[in-house]
Amino acid sequence: MPLNYSILNAEPIILPAYTNIEFYLVGCGGTGSWLVPSICRIARTLERQSKTTTLILIDADIIEQKNVLRQNFCDAEIGLNKAQTLALRSSLSWGINIEALPDSFNPDIVARDYYHRERKLKIIIGCVDNALARQSIARAISQERSWHTRDLLTELWWLDCGNHANSGQILIGSHLSTELDTYQFHQLGCTKLPAPCLQHPELLEPKPEELSESNISCAEIALLNTQSLAINQRIAAEAASYLVQLIAGKLNRLATYLDLDSGCTTSTFITEDEIAKIIVNAKGLSKN
To answer: Is residue 270 a contact partner of residue 250, using CB atoms and an 8 Å limit?
Structure first.
């Protein structure tokens, strides 16, 4: 396999010192339901290192028969809320602190303890398939930046997981700024990255089937959303790898793309040149 030479100049993400970490999993369906067990393992590992961890599961959806094959649910759970079901099952299995919010994501949830003196690392993990939900996550990032004064090291990160039928991507970032000076590199690495919606602005654009005036039939929507039985588990596994490396201070990628048909996986590494490309592209799109 050809070497991606940008890896030679890649810099890791530097996290602030923290004693408390919160994972906000937005979307407990295809990818989110498979990712929960991995986050629980990460939480248990952190607690052994004397870190206080909390996992907040957020999803308003109910488990349906069609979810059972592709998502991490069984027939006995049909009719129950996805977030509450995973929280109950996982807290009993792993003995960690898990909250369930059977509702849509509200940006204010992330800032509910803003004035708490204890430093917290917060990671929003987006496992959603619509622009509206991603817009809400982007607002949380925007609010954090406007409220926060201790912005030398970033305490809020957004890990976005998305997929199509047989392909998908994992993106990580922290800021919405289109000013290149925001993303400075230091001796040990970088402290800020362009948010997923700057890397791929189309994530915030509603798909045709999301528009209220759409004339697409239910049958056509079902066809559009047909996915491989394996894609969500692959995306979840890659997302778990991102979380492990991020917390260990070894994550030097900001995007990974995988395709099941070709068997290819490619990554974009954290370099000054790659950040510059993202910012230039984002500025160009904003002018159009």
So the answer is: no
Residue ranges of the alpha helices (H) in the chain?
Answer: 30-48, 82-94, 131-147, 196-199, 218-224, 231-248, 272-287
Structure tokens at 93: 């299995």
DSSP annotation string for 40-109: HHHHHHHHHTT-EEEEEEE--PBP-GGGTTTSS--GGGTTSBHHHHHHHHHHHHH---EEEE-S---GGG
**Strand ranges of the sheet holding 120-126, from the earlier edge strand across to the other edge:** 98-101, 52-58, 20-26, 120-126, 156-163, 167-173, 253-259, 264-269
- Which tens digits make up the pLDDT trace of 249-274? 999 999 999 999 999 999 999 999 99
Tokens 């305490």 label which residue? Answer: 155
pTM above threshold 0.70: yes
